[in-house]
Design brief:
The structure holds 2 protein chains of 2 kinds. By secondary structure, chain A is α+β, with helices and mostly antiparallel strands. Chain A is built from 6 helices and 22 strands.
């Protein structure tokens, strides 16, 4: 059995897949990767048809030894990576031989980086998923010393690929749609919300991210409401008038009013916005949002069409350099 | 966009792939009954394109697959289902299952029982009697896996949550506010008053049926004296959870 030995791990490393949909009536939110796009990109880079479980690394990676030959993908927030000391391109798939050590440093942009072996991380499933759901105590953090099963690679001879990711690692404008409680906010509160320049607060985790702004708190609208269903993407206004964008591990019901919902396509942008990143909101009509909507089921195939062979052409070095901001390594010797 | 003066029930959008049918903005027993009845009828009717039905205290969320049904088409279908019925006069259907859950009230296991009784304007003795004699229903599951909102207690229990949070109540804690009881699945901070404690585990990840409670179940607390409760709690985990499930005719 192949395995990934965790020689050291950052403080926010978890196993993640696409989570556990359809259990909200039982009080369990879907959970899964904070940046779902990154796991789809990993599957595309590895030539897989479906997303498999990988390691989600919040802010910092770790050192990992492959027990056997392993193809793997590096996606999500770009992090400095090397295999036995040789720099590796991010947003690419690579192959490691048995015993080789992969070292992954801190995020150079964004928050969540992903290391996905081609067979996926194994281990027990709960309700069809291997995702840690820290907020409710399913699974836990990956600790130094752990040995994680790697499932068999369906196509071990697949070539290494690279993929230019959709930019989503430095904040920006988040598109949202009106939700069931938007109409409970005074028009001037909504107008002010949409005109406000926010920054991503240092307060945030897989449950949600707080938004800071310079002005007075927003009007805390209604109290005494019956709790309603809440889900990832909803922008909740606390009683103190502070907005939070809910993420993968949010609770399933809540009494705070929600001013709208970030569209699924932009959810990774808020999850990946690092503390201090500038954020604004743009309200779309439901019709506009519906036109932008794409089913997740077709995403791996669509991304695979954009993937290109990972070569050592000098042309690539410029790309690579953009991900070497901390180490300053001039990489012409990256291995695949 | 719907305002607070909207006609209820209302069909409202939620995200890319869900609709919310709201029966009331505030928690009311009739609206909870309406939510449970409507969720049941939606599940029994034309479910084409519907992927998930989630009843809450006074609303129902219906998730759909936009590749199989549009929001507009589903909305029209739900409007037809709502038609021709006075949802403000809905009553909960008789329960088909009853849980009898051992609990300890007051003292170390319910440090805010006296406070809760005072807020309700009743004696501690009456509060204890009402906590163990009221046939409660699971009004909704939410907030944490399997965690029930139970109600309703008699009208004098309609006191608000505290403005200060209790930093942590233990798993199994019974907390009261707004005529409801929540049985906490995990250690939690809460603004509700802790009146008792159980060994019941609303989320059983090791089990084939990880979520034992369902919306609509009846729940009755069986008061144990503190010595008996301590002996039960000392068994720990699964062994301490001796709640009984009765199937009702």
């Amino acid at each position: 059995m192949n395995a990934l030995e965790v020689l050291s791990a950052g403080l926010g490393v978890t196993v993640q897949d696409l989570g556990r949909p359809f259990h909200m009536a039982s009080g369990l939110s879907r959970g899964g990767a904070a940046d779902r796009m990154a796991l789809h990109e990993a599957a595309a880079l590895l030539g897989l048809k479906e997303v498999v479980a990988g390691l989600e690394m919040a802010g910092l990676g770790g050192r990992f030894r492959f027990a056997g030959r392993t193809r793997f993908a590096l996606t999500g927030a770009p992090m400095r990576a090397s295999l036995d000391g040789q720099a590796l391109a991010w947003n690419a798939s690579h192959a490691a031989e048995a015993g080789q050590v992969l070292e992954i440093g801190g995020a150079e942009a964004g928050i969540y980086g992903y290391l996905t072996p081609a067979g996926g991380i194994g281990g027990p499933e709960l309700l069809g998923s291997r995702s840690a759901h820290l907020a409710v105590g399913i699974g836990g953090l990956v600790q130094t010393g752990a040995r994680l099963e790697i499932l068999p690679d369906p196509t071990p001879d697949h070539p290494s690929l690279k993929l230019a990711p959709d930019a989503r690692f430095c904040g920006g404008t988040l598109r949202m749609t009106p939700g069931p409680q938007t109409g409970l906010f005074a028009p001037e509160t909504l107008e002010r919300f949409l005109a406000t320049a926010f920054t991503r607060s240092p307060t945030g985790n897989r449950q949600g991210v707080r938004l800071d702004q310079q002005g007075a708190p927003f009007a805390a609208e209604i109290t005494g409401q019956a709790s309603e269903v809440i889900q990832a993407g909803d922008v909740q206004m606390t009683g103190a008038g502070v907005p939070y964008v809910l993420l993968a591990e949010c609770q399933t019901t809540g009494g705070y009013a929600r001013i709208g919902s970030v569209i699924p396509a932009d959810l990774a942008h808020i999850a990946q916005a690092p503390p201090g990143a500038s954020l604004r909101f743009e309200m779309l009509s439901l019709e506009e949002a519906d036109r932008l909507w794409r089913p997740e089921s077709g995403l791996v195939a669509a991304l695979a069409r954009r993937a290109e062979p990972l070569t050592r052409d000098p042309h690539d070095i410029a790309d690579l350099l953009s991900y070497q901001l901390i180490s300053g390594v001039v990489a012409g010797d990256e291995v695949d | 966009m719907p305002g607070p003066d909207q006609t209820l029930p209302a069909i409202l959008p939620l995200g890319a792939d869900a609709l919310v049918v709201r029966f009331s903005l505030t928690p009311e027993l009739a609206a909870n009954a309406a939510a449970q009845v409507f969720a049941g009828e939606a599940a029994a009717g034309d479910t084409g394109g519907i992927t998930e039905i989630v009843p809450s205290l006074a609303s129902v969320m219906l998730r759909f697959d936009p590749e199989r049904v549009t929001r507009a088409a589903l909305s029209a279908r739900l409007a037809r289902l709502l038609q021709g019925r006075d949802w403000t006069r809905c009553a909960l259907p008789a329960p088909s299952r009853r849980w009898v859950i051992p609990a300890a009230f007051g003292g170390a296991h319910g440090p805010q029982l006296e406070d809760a009784a005072a807020a309700a304007g009743i004696s501690v003795k009456q509060a204890l009697r009402e906590l163990s004699e009221t046939r409660l229903r699971v009004l909704a599951i939410g907030f944490a896996p399997g965690q029930p909102f139970l109600g309703l207690l008699p009208a004098h229990w309609d006191f608000a949550r505290l403005s200060e949070l209790t930093p942590q109540v233990p798993a199994g804690a019974l907390v009261a506010a707004v005529r409801q009881i929540v049985l906490f699945a995990n250690p939690s901070a809460t603004g509700w008053r802790q009146v008792g404690r159980t060994t019941f585990r609303p989320f059983r990840p090791e089990s084939a049926e990880p979520f034992p409670l369902r919306a609509g179940d009846e729940v009755v607390f069986e008061a144990l004296d503190h010595t008996a409760f301590a002996a039960l709690a000392a068994r720990g985990g699964e062994a301490a959870d001796i709640a009984r499930l009765e199937h009702l005719a």
